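Lab notebook, bench 4. The sequencing result for the construct came back, and we need a structural model before the next group meeting so we can plan mutations. Quick request posted to the team channel:

Model the 3D structure of this chain.
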Amino acid sequence: MASQLFKTKSIDKLLAEAADAEHRLRRTLGPWSLTALGIGAIIGTGIFILTGTAAAGEELQVHSIWKAPVLDLLLHGRNALGTGGRPGAGPGIALSFLMVALVCALAGLCYAELASMIPIAGSAYTYAYATLGEVIAWIIGWDLILEYAVSNMAVAVGFSAYIDSLLRGFGIHLPRQFMGPIFVAGERTGSYFNLPGFLIVMIISVILVLGIRESAGANNIMVMVKIIAILIFVFAASRHIEPSNWKPFMPNGWQGVLTGGAIVFFTYIGFDSVSTAAEECKQPQRDVPFGIIASLVVCALLYISVAIVLTGIQHWQALRNAAPVANALQAIGLPQVQRWVTIGALTGMLSSLLVFQLGQARVWFAMSRDGLLPRAFTKVHPRFRTPHISTWAAGLFVAIPAGIFDIGTLADLSNIGTLFAFVLVSLGVIVLRHRQPNHPRKFRTPWVPVIPLLAILCCLILMASLPLETWARFVVWLAIGLMIYFTYSKRHSEFGSDPHALEPHPAPDP
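Done. Here's the predicted structure in token form:
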């Protein structure tokens, strides 16, 4: 049993299975399409909201031990309860975005190396199977399903609310019973079903089934619109900058910059989704690392630009509100630019939905190919060459809960799941450098093991900054996953169904 749990799958075997004609996906993506996928996943509505929140700071009401960050509980015990707050970064929020980009780059470099070695669908799940063993691969695959699903449930509900507000602004009032989730915070709302939230996920699923080229093309358009909207804000608002608003640049010192970084860190999550499309790239060993790093660089430049302009047009203390960018534009007399911000927010939601649904379907596909999920999910459409069964399953897995529940309170599950994946990928780089040091690598993470260890440390600190209830929900999700693994997946995996496949780990390269 122990032999199977920690049995790894050879890289050569993974590559051979991906090349199998029956399950082969269409390779059409190039480096810029991959970069657009990364940008589509990373930049959402957070750029227009969290920038102001992190600059102005926030007050926290922590009246329950379950709501307290784990790190605060470890450092201060029950003294962590009560009224607290995070000091604002002020104009120094630009430094927060730069700092967080560098931290994400640590994990991004580790992803780039493994992606160049194992250009297979499944991202961190596949990397774990090749480095840490079957049970760890199952845990991270189950974790990725949670990450992508919960994130998209929250985005679908938010998109529905945004569309409803937009239509009401034009005097269009759709039936309330079909415009919101049935339950919010455990209470019935009177709605029958959140129809817009359900429909947008299913429309995205149709696009994904039609083909990776069509999906990437749609994402490219949305990313272009989103970037144009951001640039319009930057250039139009920059003419109204008052340099006095930047003084002092760091009103709360480095403590404010660091806490601002903790708030905005999660706006960078999504670059890892580039690696889920590795099997659909023309030259994955070269293009996937390029897409990961390039998307981080582009998004960092956009985030920093928005931060500099926003804190320049309005004093940082005035940004503590639900719509800091919109209110700042109203204050300087540019309501027309707000329309572009609205368009940018909507396309940000759509592109994020598309990329994360693509990533989730590829994880289902990869786990099914290894027997850890039912084999039906490995089926590839004969015409479109997409994993259509996995795509529809992933779509329904997100769309139905989005129609019933308000998932916003569970959004931190996506954050902790992503950070956990970063930890295992970084660890996988160290393991493969030890076991197979001479295996071809088109991209090599510099300064191993220093870079991976720094990535692991940063991710663990950020995981500890999440509330205790998020950790409890995460543990429950993993426990459910392990029950499924031991009752189904372990017996149906390649190693479980074929005892002869259980061989010792390959010896390290000479």
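The mean pLDDT is 89.
Will bring this to the meeting.
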